[in-house]
Amino acid sequence: MTTITPALLDDIRSRFAHVDTCPFTGPRVFFENAGGALTLNAVVDTTAKFAAIPDNQGRDNAASRALVSVIDTARADAATFLNARGGRIVVGESGTELLFRLIAVACLGAPDGVVLGSTLEHPASRSACARWAGVAGKRHVLIPHDDTTGVVTPQAYAAHVTPDVMVATILHTSPVTGMAMDLPGIAAAIRAVAPDALIVVDGIQHACHGRIDLAAAGVDGYVISPYKMFSRHGYGLAWASDRLSALRHDALIGAPEGSWELGTRDTGAYATFSDVVGYFDWLGARVSDASDRRARIEAAGRAIHDHEAVLTSAMLHGTGNLPGLAEMPGVGIVGGVDNPAREGLVSFYVEGRASPDIVRALSDEGIRVHTRKADGYSGNVLTPLGRPDCVRVSLCHYNTEGEVGAFLAAMKRILG
Q1: Fewest CB within 10 angstroms: 62, 106, 120, 327, which?
Q2: Which CATH number describes the domain made up of 6-38+293-415?
Q3: Model-level pTM greater than 0.70?
Q4: Which residue(s) pair with 319 in the sheet?
Q5: Signal peptide: which range, if any (predicted)?
């Protein structure tokens, strides 16, 4: 296994648009990846290419057949990336829209019982469960997450799951704490008591870090927002198991059995997801000797995880002669300092300082970060901590230790 070397990191960065410069403000460090990652140059090119094609799928001409081939290839690429066996790859309006659709189908199609989730979940899945559990006459139960660590564990699910759980939701990685959940462990804890439960996973924050294995997880639905994993806005992608796809769901009369798409989807959306999978494949070939495509994708995920762990450690504990956030007076770290569940994200607060003021000061220093407030999106995490807000610094594998150093130097001046 090869790590991401400085030379490889330069090659990686060359493949992304606006890696160190904002088209509106000029040079900047981009640490707002959880809000939407940088876009692959290949995705930009592919988007322009397919936006210019007038033909639609399903016609008897060469252009139409070529578009169908692009879609079929993208579905196969997505299944390989997710390590999904069977089921359907679904492209929709957004990740949030697809979570609503999959959860609605599960709630309406499952027998009477409980819809089980956790207090850590993003409003996308919590709102969908609250709505559709109510419509279906089911009880919505939320498992409390651990405020200190920012996670919900398999043990917590095991303590709450009952045989009448018919639908369950899991957040793979939190966009507020940055902590990843033990997805296979949680799914196993659910199935040990409620083996027939339909399990839907919010993978939106996790996907850009790689390491998705749906065959090992044993779930029924998994949802991604591709703009958060190097593609573009305008579509979401999901996988729905054969069991979930067999339930009644919105579909056109006469559509192929199991079809989820409503109307003609953008072929360019499918094609840009193939670009993303191709990028993971390329990176895996650079950090391993694997000959199998799935193995290369797995190798890329490991390299991404390891590089991001180095960056977050430097951010927390310092780099060169610069102190880390954990060593700065008045700074608190959401989820704790040395949390092994952390994935490329550090949320922090400064005693006596409003987080929006810190974000603006960092922006003035050329550092792009984001405020999370105790509102409908992040209040489930921040309110129990007694925090009105925090600063979210979200990294990705194309970021450098030098950029972390620039952030820490800016924080030292701001707090000075």
Answers
A1: 62
A2: 3.90.1150.10
A3: yes
A4: 322
A5: none
